[in-house]
Amino acid sequence: MQAKRVRTRFAPSPTGFMHVGNLRTALYEYLIAKSMGGDFVLRIEDTDQERLVEGAVDVIYRTLARVGLKHDEGPDVGGEYGPYIQSERRDIYRDYAEKLVEMGHAYYCFCTKERLDSLHKEGDEFGGYDRHCRNLPKEEVDRLLAAGTPYVIRQKMPLEGSTTFVDAVYGEITIENKEIEDQILLKSDGYPTYNFANVIDDHLMQITHVVRGCEYLTSTPKYNLLYEAFGWEIPTYVHLPLIMGKNEDGSVSKLSKRHGSTGFEDLIREGYLPETVVNYIALLGWCPKGNEEIFSLEELVQNFSIDRISKSPAVFDYDKLTWMNGEYIRALPQEKFIELAMPYFREVFPDTEPNGKILAEILQPRVTKLTQIPEMIAFFRELPEYEKDLFVNKKSKTNLENSVDMLRAAIGCLEKIPQWTVDQIHDSLLALAQELGVKNGTLLWPVRIAAAGMTVTPGGAMEILTVLGKEESLRRLQIGLEKLLAADES
RNA sequence: GGCCCGGUCGUCAAGUGGUUAAGACACCGCCCUUUCACGGCGGGUUCACGAGUUCGAAUCUCGUCCGGGUCACCA
Questions:
Q1: Is A257 an annotated catalytic residue?
Q2: Closest by Cα among A90, A23, A12 to A56
């Protein structure tokens, strides 16, 4: 017996926004397919005509391309199971819905929106449809149809018994049939509902693994009843634990805007790398065998397995995401880092060509988000106001008095440097410290303070002086010196 | 509220009857160092609670509690 080729699909609704939860679903679908040598299909679920958003499909293409989830079939690349856009498949759904009516598994419903609303008001807020049209006589149905009365087609659920299915993550789940509503299959505008279109398309497109968030867990029996009605093979279900966000009060709820950025492009805008986002979300709900946490997409494909998907919801942790981003940034080749960081360099140096190489050297080991860069290097552009006591540092053995000497010596030494390079500055200053008989820190602390105007800086004194240039460096050291001398007099 | 699913450090989590209950993030301390960061070392009453099964339970069973999901002509 030959195993069936594994096929998964990512079926987003074009909302113009790629939530990380959606992206994770797409990722897992891709990983399941690719780890088993299968196909990954993209299908656009645009059956809600009221929520159509201009350009939203492009966001989907753009995001998938950006993270490397290449689909084998889809609206843009074609394939033998098209069309891959549901609005172009309307006739298919209608045919199947009508077939279901003929077989006695579905029925026409002519209830108005008002009547349905009134059902809710009178009973409790959770009351469902009362199956008012389920047993309408055939003549009545024909008459209403002929009169052009608006209608929907509903699925006829069994009134008794229960439906059991097996989920690859959650195991065996049983739901009483009386809990299941006679759901709408075909809406009055002729479009199918999500649940119905999914079953039809997943079958027609020969999807073997239906992967989705576990908010669909309780509606799965409806799907099975549909598959059974048609006599189709039921796919493997893979329900994923939800991604949660942490609230101010410590409680958690489904990840949403108030928890921070939740859209893929928002995260990128915030300075996270696409590779980081993919790696991080892969780990939300799935755990590799060993202790390694950094995985490229290719490595994820090699290591992924359904049986290591977790059942419990995971809280999205921006701290860990940020740490991981730092790991990715540090691993970047320097040229690549410079390329990515250059727009941020230019924010601080709009008029001059930033020294990419030296900036990269001081920033790449320290930055965890690209967006931190302007703030971190702002002091290069303008010397901040600072207090003279920044010169005092116990560990470096500096105080207001010896800082004066150090600065004087440093200025004298630096003025003589012919080539303003890190190496030259480095060698000269260290030689000076030796000559003065002080530890490096005693000389370099005051120099760095005067050059930067603050205690915490990316990079050390030498790097800062290099970026500043000779003229500006000497100017700042002079300012520092004067500040100390003025303090002396008071 | 009915139904469904979960519950191992603050967070992500390994763990499938016998472990000193891994690892990572965050936090704290120390080292390295020219500040910070990186790196190195170290630190922590974590198995929701209560019964039961068993020589032995984080692991199996039941109950309780807590959390989440779902109950649309949205997906």
A1: yes
A2: A12
